[in-house]
Amino acid sequence: MKPKLIQILNEYGHANILQIEGISDELMLKMYRMMVLTRIWNGKALSLQRQGRMGTITSVHGQEAANIGMALPLEQTDWFLPSFRDQGVLFTLGVSLKDQLLFWGGYEQGMYIPEHLNIAPSCITVGSHLCHAAGVAYAAKLRKEKTVVLTNSGDGSTSEGDFHESLNMASLFQLPVVFVVQNNHWAISMPFERQSATETISEKAAAYNMESARVDGNDVFAVYKTVKKYVELAREKSQPALIELVTYRIGDHTTADDATRYRTKEVIDEWIKKDPIDRMKKFLVETHRWDEQQDKSLIDECMKQVEQAVKDYEAVGVIEPAEMFKYMYHEMPWHLKEEIDEVKALYKGEDA
Amino acid sequence: MKPKLIQILNEYGHANILQIEGISDELMLKMYRMMVLTRIWNGKALSLQRQGRMGTITSVHGQEAANIGMALPLEQTDWFLPSFRDQGVLFTLGVSLKDQLLFWGGYEQGMYIPEHLNIAPSCITVGSHLCHAAGVAYAAKLRKEKTVVLTNSGDGSTSEGDFHESLNMASLFQLPVVFVVQNNHWAISMPFERQSATETISEKAAAYNMESARVDGNDVFAVYKTVKKYVELAREKSQPALIELVTYRIGDHTTADDATRYRTKEVIDEWIKKDPIDRMKKFLVETHRWDEQQDKSLIDECMKQVEQAVKDYEAVGVIEPAEMFKYMYHEMPWHLKEEIDEVKALYKGEDA
Amino acid sequence: MARKSMIQAINDALHIMMTEDESVLVLGQDVGEDGGVFRATVDLIEKYGPERVVDMPLAESLIVGSAIGMAMNGLKPVAEIQFMGFIYQGFDQTLCHAARYRHRSRGRFGLPMVVRAPYGAGVRALEHHSESTEVHFASVPGLKVVIPSTAYDAKGLLISAIEDPDPVMFFEPKRLYRLKKEEVPSEKYTITIGKAHIAREGADITIIAWGGMMPIALAAAEHVADEGVEAEVIDLRTIQPFDVETITASVAKTGRLVIVHEAPRLFGPGAEIATQVYERNLLHLLAPIARVTGYDIVPPMARAEDFNYPNREKIVKAIYKTMEF
Amino acid sequence: MARKSMIQAINDALHIMMTEDESVLVLGQDVGEDGGVFRATVDLIEKYGPERVVDMPLAESLIVGSAIGMAMNGLKPVAEIQFMGFIYQGFDQTLCHAARYRHRSRGRFGLPMVVRAPYGAGVRALEHHSESTEVHFASVPGLKVVIPSTAYDAKGLLISAIEDPDPVMFFEPKRLYRLKKEEVPSEKYTITIGKAHIAREGADITIIAWGGMMPIALAAAEHVADEGVEAEVIDLRTIQPFDVETITASVAKTGRLVIVHEAPRLFGPGAEIATQVYERNLLHLLAPIARVTGYDIVPPMARAEDFNYPNREKIVKAIYKTMEF
Ligand SMILES: Cc1ncc(C[n+]2csc(CCOP(=O)(O)OP(=O)(O)O)c2C)c(N)n1
Ligand SMILES: Cc1ncc(C[n+]2csc(CCOP(=O)(O)OP(=O)(O)O)c2C)c(N)n1
Ligand SMILES: [Mg+2]
Ligand SMILES: [Mg+2]
After folding, report:
1. Contact criterion met (CB < 8 Å) for C297 and B336
2. Is residue C298 part of a domain?
């Protein structure tokens, strides 16, 4: 049984008024601002990549509502375990634009998350971090904290064994963890219907006796409200949930990918019509919460922020070779000390 | 939604007459005979183990109907991928009593399955062989054979990632594979309700958009008919299925286990009332297909067969050390040749 | 002081650490009421409850993976994998995550976690129950690998492993679990990870062994002592990072080395130890280093098990060959 | 003959084998329409259809595990794992099943299957994209491990791997995929698995390398040749079972050996090779064997990648150190 798609703000920018009650104007503008900022950062990062000033990077274009909508319900003490297409979540939770440039730019230091944020480093192996999330939630529940754990993964992750094992555990122990899956229709070249035997992701929750929902992932209101509902259930009742956010990967899988090999422009055009930022802007403007002038300033301001981040990123310069060894163990064993000496001897003449 | 339990022959030995139409008397007696033989073999093997004449062994006591009922619908060209509590399946498919004694007795040669049987060697790592089954079925389908692949695993296997990955694949590619899970209520000391977030195994099929059924696993008719139905669907329509056989592990997990640590005698007694052999015998006797005299001869005959197998098993004697190296590769690499020479030099004085 | 088997000493260490530190918890298959298939966790659930003695679903990737999450969030999980032969389903979690979280988070999330698993032959059970593949973990940067050989060591090393701020793979020689009882102090004590133990002094030849091989290595040493060859027997205790200093000092003295392990030979743990010794002691060596190991095969089932594993005779033979080079 | 890059040569081998043998099939993530993320499988789906060029769900255990089943049932699957860094989720299937089915079935089910994966640094992508952990497979009895270093070898070795009756792990140095084009015959040819190739002859010192390390090993040899040191460079090609004969013959001649690999050093592949040489050539050796390897760390991301990996300078340094011992 295909579950109903939850939608509040449709692609024409019309919202169900009853459903948005309780979302303050301030919050709406924050949603919009973070979506715009994320898109501008994303565009900039892609262009840096084309210029050889950035590493291989995933594009979050088109998934901003899913990203920002899932981040906003979290409280400071909650946890987030990211995968690799959630830059918008990270920005919303307080990770800096610069750190994300460093991360994608090939600097390990970009993986550092400041102590005041309960965010795990990005998990690149698809689905593995869902097990970690179950464990983080277990620890929180054991200590009787009212902490919620949120994870993000892609539609492809639902095929991995770790997805299955983690959801089973979360439900068995009734852990306060919300598994958000961004169904952006693609896992590299594989459309979801060839990835999974079910039509939707949310229906997989049946195998875990778990609550689930299927949401228009390009509708920031629906994403926000649904995630908020399940985050609160997790907080109050320690009850896990699986939330499918139906969205679309507008760009290539990464800058190393060429999506024209496996999909046509027409489908993308269809989805561009459903753009999460466009519809939000329409809504804000039509309901007189926003105007073109403000929009222009916002864009300017975001561009400036991003430019500054790029400057800071590019000022970082080279890594000391000894950095490579620093965090392998709490205390460095003999063989790493020997290897550091080797490296130092090799590179002592050079800048590095 | 908990699916309905399929039952034809209840614990009092009463069968739904309409449902058993088409099962010949001959087949019924074969079912009974194989169940009795399996139980006698099992009892003998356990007693050999207690005498130090056998290795650690799993007991199939109580699961004979599940075992025999799933085996009988297969044709000679079909495949079976076993786990480790399916001695009755193997006997029914043609594996010798002696070979299974060798296997459990610690002889690698007991793992050899004669060429005319499409049976994989037993898989000890829980759940791994479900992936193999998907692959075997893929190959059969690719060649457009009308071959069906059957697997057996335990309730515990449903927690493993491989279970999930395999069922997803089988459904995606519509492979002719029937996943039978014997839900004997226990995975060593873990009752199923603490293993799995769902109340039943069959409902997990929803996550794979797959047909499923839940069957009284102590009712050989229901097992046989349900497995047969899905084996035929697999054969005709290349359609996978998940079948849960609800049964009970009467004995300890293995001879190394002591189940009194974690479960009470009372529950076992409840299940002994539902014994698959008792109810079948009652049915056969009450419907005048069988009498006590015949039963006695059958038991005698089975005991003789088992005794002979034990004799043959115990006549096998020691393994040549060089045997260990024989099947590592098609052609033996240099290092194994060197190691064989080493071993030969070491053991040349001795019998071995 | 009381006489304890190795399995009791392990259980003792868990009791002590769970009492002392609320953040210590045990998880795995059948670790609760059953007390673990080898009884390493008996009586824990009665004392600390099912929330800290966690019977996990049958899923090794999850056992290691959720332990990672627990360790990230303030706990000190001790995960049990029922047999080393079932650890590989958790290999991705171990190699890609447990070993790397400290590095990946630039020091923020060190993972104080232990993965315990019985290893090696000795129970004459089915396939996958006799593995000795510690090298797969020793070769992973970011992990520590510890293997005790006595009840005393098992307790002290396990306590150290639980207190270690990094992930420790703790492999227990199941053949020694109940082989004998020995005096084990009842209080808490630790044994330094990364330090080898000279179990027997000798000047003629060095033998390095660990875990299940120690009793036979010592027996071989006693045997050759009757013929006047004094072997120094080093119990490595920690495979990664191993104690290269103690080893090289001993070989500098004896000039001869036999390495004993159950694991298959090729690309096995002995290769690295030998290579380090050659690199550091080449001019002291009076003979090639000998390896006495399991063969490069699938660990045999019960009937052939003894042929595969190192035993006193094989070691004695290697000692003489090395002495006579 | 045509000039081909390594990735084209690999694609060529797949085309040839799929045409010749109906039982050969390719499976993996994105191997179909996309042609694989590195384009190893381009144009296969057009020619052989989606049933023999199988886009698999995102599940590595399943990719290896279902390939096992296919091989049991008459096919010759060539499974692609997208990067070596994602192979560990299939480790249980590889170690416990692919490697053991022949043994477990007493010879009945040999598994003619290949698992291909790009390995090593060179694409400057995210974590897990630069692994060189061939030792995890080399140490598994029952597997073969092959690593080509040229387009010519890649084609011949891959064809041999597909024809091999045993499971072959085929690791491709992604840094060489497109580095240059070379003459590759268009017809079918094989290269024997288990035989090393002497890529450069020399009498003064032996260098053993493979895969991505070969170009720099050769460059180092050329460099020292200018100073009068003639290095013999052995391209190992097969890591397991490796060609101990060619190696020992060379070292018997030169008396000196440098082993080069990208993989971390400790318990790395070089340890076994070194140990075998010491065991067999101890009296020929004029200096300790040197290892030039990646360090015992998480493979660095793009910015530090070059510091970690062996390069010409590091090898030259090791050569001189060995020569001057
Ligand atoms: C375990 C694993 N296998 C393969 C990969 C290579 N890979 C990177 S992203 C990706 C597709 C992921 O698709 P999805 O989960 O839908 O996330 P999306 O990229 O759409 O955000 C693949 C196969 C990986 N990172 N991890
Ligand atoms: C991967 C793996 N993990 C752990 C084990 C140890 N073990 C053997 S049987 C078993 C329980 C299996 O329960 P179930 O699947 O229900 O089968 P049953 O024993 O009831 O037939 C366990 C945990 C194993 N064999 N394989
Ligand atoms: Mg996706
Ligand atoms: Mg069971």
Report:
1. yes
2. yes
* Integer angstrom CA distances of residue B274 from B66, D91, D321: 13, 42, 78
Q: B317: Cβ–Cβ under 8 A, 6 or more apart, which residues?
A: none
Q: Determine the structural domain holding residue D149 and report its residue range.
A: 3-183
Chain B neighbours (≥3 Cβ pairs under 8 A) are A, C, D
CA-CA distance, C305 to A268, in Å (whole number)? Answer: 61
Q: Check which CATH number belongs to the domain holding D178 and give it.
A: 3.40.50.970
Domain count, chain D: 2
pLDDT, tens digit, for every residue of B312-344? 999 999 999 999 999 999 999 999 999 999 999
Report CA-CA distances (Å) from D299 to A49, A106, D264. 22, 12, 9
Mean pLDDT of D261-265: 98
Q: Which residues contact C311 (CB under 8 A, 6 or more apart)?
A: C216
Q: Name which residue sits closest to atom 17 of ligand 1, judged by CA.
A: A154
- b/e per residue D184-215 (b: at least 16 CB within 10 A): beeeeebbebbebbebbebebbbbbbbbbbbb
Q: How confident is the model at residue B351 (pLDDT cuts 50, 70, 90)?
A: very low
pTM across the whole model: 0.98
User: What is the domain range of residue A139?
Assistant: 5-319
Domain total for chain B? 2
Residue A92 Cα, ligand 3 centroid: separation in angstroms? 21
Residues 82-111 of D with CB under 8 A from B: 92-93, 96-97, 101-110
ipTM of the complex: 0.98
Would you call D93 and B334 a contact, using CB atoms and an 8 Å cutoff?
Answer: no
Q: Return the pLDDT at B349.
A: 59
Verify whether residue D129 is a known catalytic residue. Answer: yes
Q: What is the mean pLDDT of residues B206-213?
A: 98
Q: Which of D81, D139, D243 to mutate to test the interface with C (most CBs of C within 10 A)?
A: D139
Q: Are D319 and D205 part of one and the same domain?
A: yes
Reference A69, options A230, A247, A222, A233; nearest CA is A222
SS3 content of chain B, % helix, strand, coil (to 5): 50, 10, 35
Q: Name the residue type at position B201.
A: I
User: How far is it between the farthest Cα atoms of chain A?
Assistant: 69
pLDDT band at D1 (very low <50, low <70, confident <90, very high): confident
Strand partners, C205: C231
Same domain, A312 and A351: no
Round to whole Å and give the CA distance between C65 and C78. 12
Place of tokens 């080093």: C234
What spatial distance separates the first Cα and last Cα of chain C, rounded to whole Å? 46
